[in-house]
Amino acid sequence: MKVLVVGGGGREHALCWTIAASPLCHKLYCAPGNAGIAEEAECVPIAAEDAEALVAFVQKEAIDYVVVGPEAPLVLGLVDRLGEIGVKAFGPSAAAAQLEGSKGFTKDLCAKYGIPTAAYARFTEAAAAKAYVREEGAPIVVKADGLAAGKGVTVAMTEDEALAAIDEAMAGGAFGEAGAELVIEAFLEGEEASFFALVDGETALPLATAQDHKRAYDGDEGPNTGGMGAYSPAPVMTQDLIDQTMERIILPTVAAMKAEGMPYKGVLYAGLMITDKGPELIEYNVRFGDPECQVVLMRLMSDLLPALIASTDGQLASFDLRWYEEAALTVVMAAKGYPGAYDKGTVIRNLDHAGGNSDDVKIFHAGTKLGAEGEILANGGRVLNVTAMAPSIRQAQERAYAAVDKIDWPEGFCRRDIGWRALERE
Ligand code: AMP
Ligand code: GLY
Fold this sequence. Notes:
By secondary structure, the chain is an alpha+beta fold.
């Protein structure tokens, strides 16, 4: 098969690395890819959001299967566009991608089908939103309805913070169109966890558990980011919690989407709060988590590509995935300044030596490009995902940091405590 992966981050590097190893794949492309992905796939300079150009490329190269990494092209309808020209693609339709594209859509679906989530209301007028906040009191959570690159959520500990967040989104236009509508919801208390399942419209197959660290600095302090590291398995997700999540959240959602005439296919990524009443849904994402994907795929023993195709073809019921018992852990190396302003174009040295020859260490590239002399240049906020597998989370952590310490990149930084919650449980 000729396969195209869409995207250019660490998640897509892990997808390309995994798919390239499949005996079913004889030619792999990635658009736009990055300097690391170029070692697994032929990179084509087309942006992930440029559906027009992607469709033309797929036709020209007679691509058999497309795997869409990020949410933006999914929400924009890339899978539908490819379907119109008869090309199969992994990921939800635009209609089904509303599970990530509109928080209000997801909350309404949960309310209609009894899926546990925080009590909420939707607003398009600031005055009504503020009245609701005054009535409910703090703590309370204010969310932009649409995609806001992970920045549209304010967990307000005081009423004033919530009122300011309403003004910022609605009057200030901080999130553009995405913030024209707000969801305001009750504050949930508990430990956060993530849950991933492959879905084929009818059935869902849970993936290995994983957990990320969202804050920029050690001790889970500092600003929110896309994720500074991750590990798998995630001890917080016990078998009992996995079963509860499947029965109360994932399977009812799959059935609801089918009943609504927009069957969900692809990865369903549930952000959960483990409350004293059990797991509640915080939000859905319609794609693999990044960097969670990197640790999950490191542990995958089975061939990924047929599983993705089974999701597209509605054939997951007969499917089973095998995982290595070992733990995997990834450390994100980011450009100094991230998630605020940072420099691009700084030189990263010694990656080959840091990666070594071992199968148990893999450095995924999240934001790199090749320089004129073949050197690796930083080209984003999150730049590298230094990933290791070992018999325990602690050993995986040691192995990953040993590789991190060999990388010569003075303009980068990373957290030194990835996995600490899991280690406390171990
Ligand atoms: P989201 O983008 O919806 O995942 O929200 C970002 C972060 O805000 C989550 O990872 C949680 O830490 C926090 N959050 C969102 N909704 C709630 C809630 N209802 N109660 C408490 N924390 C929340
Ligand atoms: N690591 C969180 C995300 O992919 O949204």
